[in-house]
Amino acid sequence: MTTTDGFGAQKVPRLSSLDARRADLYGGPNVAIPPKHLMASILSHDTAQEMQMATEQLSDISSEDGSPQVVTSLTEEKPSITADDFALAFDIDGVLMRGGEPIPEAAAALKYINGENPYGVRVPYIFVTNGGGKTEEERCLDLSRQLDLEVSPGQFICGHTPMREMAEKYHTVLVVGGEGEKCRIVAEGYGFKDVITPGDIIKTRHDTTPFRKLTDEEYKNSRARDLSLTTIEAIFVFADSRDWAGDQQIILDCLMSKEGHLGERSQTFNEGPPLFFSHNDVVWSTSHEHTRIGMGALRASLEALYKAVTGKELSTIAFGKPQIGTYQFAMRLLQQWRKDYHEINKPPSTVYFVGDTPESDIRGTNEFNEISDATWYSILVKTGVYQDGDTPVYPAKHTCNNVLDAVKFAMDREMSKKNKGGAIDDIDSNAGPLRN
Ligand SMILES: [Mg+2]
Predict the structure, then answer these.
(1) Could you tell me the residue ranges of all domains in the chain?
(2) Does pTM surpass 0.85?
(3) Which of 29, 160, 369, 371 could connect to 376 by a Cys-Cys bridge, CB 3.0–4.6 Å?
(4) pLDDT tens digits along 104-141
(5) Separation of 361 CA from ligand 1 center, angstroms?
(6) For residue 386, how far is its CA from the centre of ligand 1 (angstroms)?
(7) What is the Cα gyration radius of the chain?
(8) CA dist 140 to 53, 107, 129, 151, 155, Å?
């Protein structure tokens, strides 16, 4: 199994291991740090143009009954004071949204940091989600509608955003996951020249997945091709698989191939293309009362399957939180956003990251805090994966009931700091030592 320049590889403990704990699945060395050139390139992606496009698209949005949606405009007059010393970063699922619906306190929290607070201060913020499956622009439009507030692609990172620049390296790729053709569209939008989906392979060879038949819609959209002339150079799981059995069969076929030629099996099982996941969250929060398995579970499953079928270990690569590269990327996006939209041309001293998953949001924030010039301050909320009474393996600096409490805590802490000339006696009871 090959890896890519600039990327490490992670071995996740086998699910078959009797003593494997959930935390073990997240353990091991970090992987998938997007290389510097990748980040620079993404950030030079025309943020201003994206903002303008999103603004124009938002102005075209009408609700189903034809009446205009109420969306706060970027062009509205700003409050007179914008905090230049601190900023906020939010996870989305389990923090602001759950099961496709806004968490009750989400709208109030965003209004609070947009100036509706006792201090009259507006705070710059970004969103960093492991989720995906849609273009960044589409996801921002969804969020804008759901949260009744404009969200720009210039303040948004999802799990597969860093895959954009992999298009320079790989020509023909297998893209897995998501609804219908959406991930193919995302991948083509990123510049991948030849994007194959599992549907294309099933349409070409219906016996690839004996129990999986394409729907009429899938058959129409899928593209039959001569597989004998196809070389799959890399596999990307962009979003959660909708058909684990079929997708795993096809991914395994690729991994076991000789250099990505589906018709040719490797004798050594170490000649297949690299396999990338947009994140490694084993579970995530939905409207169901218990967490649901996610992409990290598919990753663990595939690695176990590969071992069972070939006897060989499989190294795979994951982006997203808690990878340090994702936080480096987030910091640069935040600085760009502060500069472009808030006209603040300096890095923030403190970034509060609000998340619901200790193993990704909190772990990544705490680890990035150790190496970042700025303080990255983790706040855990109880509205998603983490539930009251759990003992997180990766404790946050502070824990709150919900996102509104989190932003109030951050604001109060900063204001208290200001009043004390920068020093603060921290009020956390569940925190490790602070760097401030
Ligand atoms: Mg979450």
Answers:
(1) 162-318
(2) no
(3) 369
(4) 999 999 999 999 999 999 999 999 999 889 999 999 99
(5) 7
(6) 9
(7) 22
(8) 11, 15, 12, 5, 9
